[in-house]
C-alpha cells in the first residue's frame, strides 16, 4: 500500500444554472473506473465558496500528501474536455454560493500573478486525442477567474505546481457522464506517466515548501 501513488480528484457542487454539476458527476464516474491498481484515488466534492476552498485545500495536501491533485469543474462555454495550464491570482469579482467574494479580489496576497502546472498539458492533450477515446480534449490558459481558477491557483501554490485542472462541458453537451469519466481517467493516467518520466516533477511536495514563492 505504501508504494501506491496517491491522487486526489475533486469536483464542484451545483451553482447558478448548473443544478447538476457535471464535474462532480464525472469525478464519481472516474471513481467507479479507478486509475489502476498502482493508484490510491481519493475523491471529494468542493463547495463553490472561496472561504471553503481556502479551508479545505491545505488539509487535502497536508493529510494525504498526494503526488497529484486534479480539480475538475464545469464550464457552460466548453464543448471539449479542457485541460487548464495555469491558475491566476487576481480578478475574483464574481460572488460565490454564499454571495461572498474576496475583498482583495485575489487568492494569495503575496503570490505570483500566475502559476503554471509542472505538467505540459499540450502533451497530455495530444496523447489522449491520439488514443482513440472519442472524446475531444483541448488546452486553455484561462480557467475563468471564478472558483475553478481560484481553486487551481491555490492548489498549484500549495503543491509546488503538482496539480491539474480539467474543465468539462455540461452533461449531454455533447458528452455523457461515462464519456467524461473515461476522459478524466485517460488524461490523469497520462499526467501520471509524465510525472514518472521526469524526476524533478516527481519530488514529493513536502521537500520544497519553503520555496513556494519560486514557482511562477
Condensed summary:
The chain has helices at residues 22-33, 50-64, 121-129, 147-158, 177-197; strands at 5-12, 39-46, 68-74, 81-84, 86-88, 114-116, 137-140, 163-168.
Model description:
- With 216 residues, the chain is of the alpha/beta class.
- The protein has a single domain, classed as 3-Layer(aba) Sandwich (Aminopeptidase).
- 32% of the residues lie in helices and 20% in strands.
- The chain is built from 5 helices and 8 strands.
- It has helices at 22-33, 50-64, 121-129, 147-158, 177-197, and strands spanning 5-12, 39-46, 68-74, 81-84, 86-88, 114-116, 137-140, 163-168.
- The strands form 2 sheets. Strands 2-1-3-8-4-7 form a 6-stranded mixed β-sheet, with helices on both faces.
- Helix 3 crosses helix 5 (177-197).
- The chain is globular.
- Mean pLDDT is 92; it is low at 201-216.
Question: In terms of topology, how is this protein built?
Answer:
Blueprint: E1 5-12, H1 22-33, E2 39-46, H2 50-64, E3 68-74, E4 81-84, E5 86-88, E6 114-116, H3 121-129, E7 137-140, H4 147-158, E8 163-168, H5 177-197
Parallel strand pairs: 1-2, 1-3, 3-8, 4-7
Antiparallel strand pairs: 4-8, 5-6
Helix pairs in contact: 1-5, 2-4, 3-5
Main location: cytoplasm
InterPro entries: Peptidase_C15 (IPR000816), Peptidase_C15-like (IPR016125), Peptidase_C15-like_sf (IPR036440)
EC number: 3.4.19.3
Share in helix: 25-40%
Count the domains.
Answer: 1
Mean pLDDT: 92
| N-to-C order of helices and strands | EHEHEEEEHEHEH
Cα-based radius of gyration, to the nearest Å: 16 Å
User: Into which percentage range does the β-strand content fall?
Assistant: 15-25%
For the record, the CATH class is Alpha Beta
InterPro entries: Peptidase_C15, Peptidase_C15-like, Peptidase_C15-like_sf
EC number: 3.4.19.3
Function: Removes 5-oxoproline from various penultimate amino acid residues except L-proline.
Family: Belongs to the peptidase C15 family.
Amino acid at each position: 500500500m505504501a508504494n501506491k501513488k496517491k491522487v486526489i480528484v475533486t469536483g464542484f457542487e451545483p451553482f447558478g444554472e448548473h443544478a447538476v454539476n457535471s464535474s462532480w458527476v464525472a469525478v464519481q464516474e472516474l471513481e467507479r473506473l479507478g486509475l489502476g491498481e498502482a493508484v490510491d484515488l481519493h475523491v471529494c466534492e468542493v463547495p463553490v465558496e472561496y472561504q471553503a476552498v481556502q479551508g479545505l485545500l491545505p488539509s487535502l495536501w497536508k493529510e494525504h500528501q498526494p503526488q497529484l491533485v486534479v480539480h475538475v469543474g464545469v464550464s457552460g462555454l466548453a464543448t471539449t474536455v479542457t485541460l487548464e495550464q495555469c491558475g491566476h491570482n487576481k480578478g475574483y469579482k464574481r460572488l460565490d454560493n454564499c454571495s461572498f467574494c474576496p475583498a482583495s479580489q485575489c487568492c494569495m496576497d503575496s503570490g505570483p500573478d500566475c502559476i503554471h502546472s509542472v505538467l505540459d498539458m499540450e502533451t497530455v492533450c495530444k496523447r489522449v486525442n491520439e488514443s482513440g477515446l472519442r472524446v475531444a480534449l483541448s488546452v486553455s490558459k484561462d480557467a475563468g477567474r471564478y472558483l475553478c481558477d481560484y481553486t487551481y491557483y491555490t492548489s498549484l501554490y500549495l503543491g509546488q505546481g503538482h496539480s491539474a485542472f480539467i474543465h468539462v462541458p455540461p452533461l449531454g453537451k455533447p458528452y455523457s457522464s461515462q464519456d467524461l469519466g473515461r476522459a478524466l481517467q485517460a488524461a490523469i493516467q497520462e499526467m501520471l506517466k509524465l510525472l514518472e518520466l521526469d524526476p524533478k516533477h516527481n519530488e514529493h511536495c513536502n521537500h520544497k515548501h519553503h520555496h513556494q514563492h519560486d514557482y511562477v
